[in-house]
Amino acid sequence: MTATMIKEFRLPDLGEGLTESEILSWKVAVGDTVTLNQVIAEVETAKAVVELPSPFAGTVAALHEQPGTVVEVGKPIVSFEVDDAGSTNGGSAPSTGDGSAVETSAKSAPAAGGVEAVGAPAKREPNLVGYGAVVEHTGRPTRRARGQVQELGSATVAPETSVIPESAAVATPEADVAERPRSTPPVRKLARDLGVDLQSVPGTGPGGLITREDVQNFSGAPKPAIEAPATQGGRETRTPIKGVRKFTAAAMVQSAFTAPHVTEFLTVDVTATMDLLARLKGNKSFEGYKLTPLTIAAKAVLVALRNHPTLNSRWDEANQEIVQFNYVNLGIAAATPRGLTVPNIKDADRLSLRELSTALTDLTDTARAGKTSPSELSGGTVSITNIGVFGIDAGTPILNPGEAAIVALGAVRKAPWVVNDELAVRQVMSLSLSFDHRLVDGEQGSRFLADLGAILSDPAMVMTMI
């Protein structure tokens, strides 16, 4: 008879130190047989909706959290029953105190039906990146393996890491184990915020891990209230602030009160651009491509940035440096059912107009479906928000945190315009440019906006800028 063991899967950090995620739905049920990398759940982080792949091949033994529950990183969410030798197709998972999988053996279980932890396997097995620190079974801290990682669904697998017993010490990137109590980065940050010395806090988590509750109990700070679904009664409706909307609100407040914003406006005659757009739509080489005013405007922004690189930079407060980007990750603000997101097109400055059209279509379709990944929401260098689709002419957009500029595109409208000293009906658009005055002075911002307007007024001006 084949022996089996129970492996516990803990919620991983799904990107950039996020401390919690909400379980939106389970794609499996207790008793289901799953394969390695099969999608088992859909969760919402503070940035995006993410599909979780299974790190094991086996049978679902238990689901520890219900849909709608907000779960902290490192908490168990599902257990699997797998063959004692590991996943049938080579899958395995880490065993640490922060977002990991803990394995227990069914064949060594007590008679009462419990399970006992077993030691680390002799061979080195893959570890889901971000699922916690990994340590050699000798108890000495180990470094995460270097080299190229290979994709595993929406997570990543790094080669040459190890699995250890739960009782082993956990390594942290900041210090040796002997110098720091066991805890996760979010818990260490909470301790710093509350002024708590972790050396004095007893850990109640697995293997002595210090949890958020341990820090809050030690400091006497009240625990956060449990979020409830939207409640409606009388004359008002209350909805918990969480997920993407919570993250966006915090980011916008940080940006507005950190970077000194300046906004400039320019209204331009875009008749020539609209004529160009009509010709391109009828061109066979663009058949099957979705072309809109945003497509042309995005390309114009990318061209104008070549002569005004200060708008494609970042203020690094910690290192007191100005970071100049030699590439453009173009962010596109997208209104989604879950709130505003700003996914970006990587290396957009290297794309042809056809490639840019495809990238924009994919980006907006993914965002509207709520499937944008955390990696697509990070690393932007400059952004565009297309408020014209809502019939709005101009606005004062807030910078995406970490970026120096954002362009708002207004609606294209027919309006009276003076052409060759005569009044004519033309198609016009208002452009709004917000920039970080620490990085971009008034002249630089004005010249960029003027160049952008010149391209949209006469697309042939591109020939003078490249």
What's the quick description here?
The protein has helices at 185-194, 212-219, 243-258, 271-281, 293-307, 353-368, 374-377, 442-457, and strands at residues 4-10, 20-26, 33-34, 39-44, 49-53, 58-63, 70-72, 76-83, 101-105, 116-117, 127-128, 150-152, 155-158, 231-233, 236-238, 261-269, 313-316, 321-324, 330-332, 334-336, 339-341, 344-345, 382-386, 405-409, 413-419, 422-436. The chain has 466 residues and is of the alpha+beta class. It folds into three domains: 4-180, RNA polymerase II/Efflux pump adaptor protein, barrel-sandwich hybrid domain (OB fold (Dihydrolipoamide Acetyltransferase, E2P)); 183-225, Irregular (Dihydrolipoamide Transferase); 244-464, 2-Layer Sandwich (Chloramphenicol Acetyltransferase), CATH 3.30.559.
What does this molecule look like?
With 466 residues, this protein is an alpha+beta fold. It has three domains: 177 residues, RNA polymerase II/Efflux pump adaptor protein, barrel-sandwich hybrid domain (OB fold (Dihydrolipoamide Acetyltransferase, E2P)); 43 residues, E3-binding domain (Dihydrolipoamide Transferase), CATH 4.10.320.10; 221 residues, Chloramphenicol Acetyltransferase, CATH 3.30.559. Strands 16, 19, 22, 23, 24, 25 and 26 form a seven-stranded mixed beta sheet that branches. Strands 3-6-8-1-9-10 form a six-stranded antiparallel beta sheet, with no helix packed on it. A hairpin with a 2-residue loop joins strand 12 and strand 13.
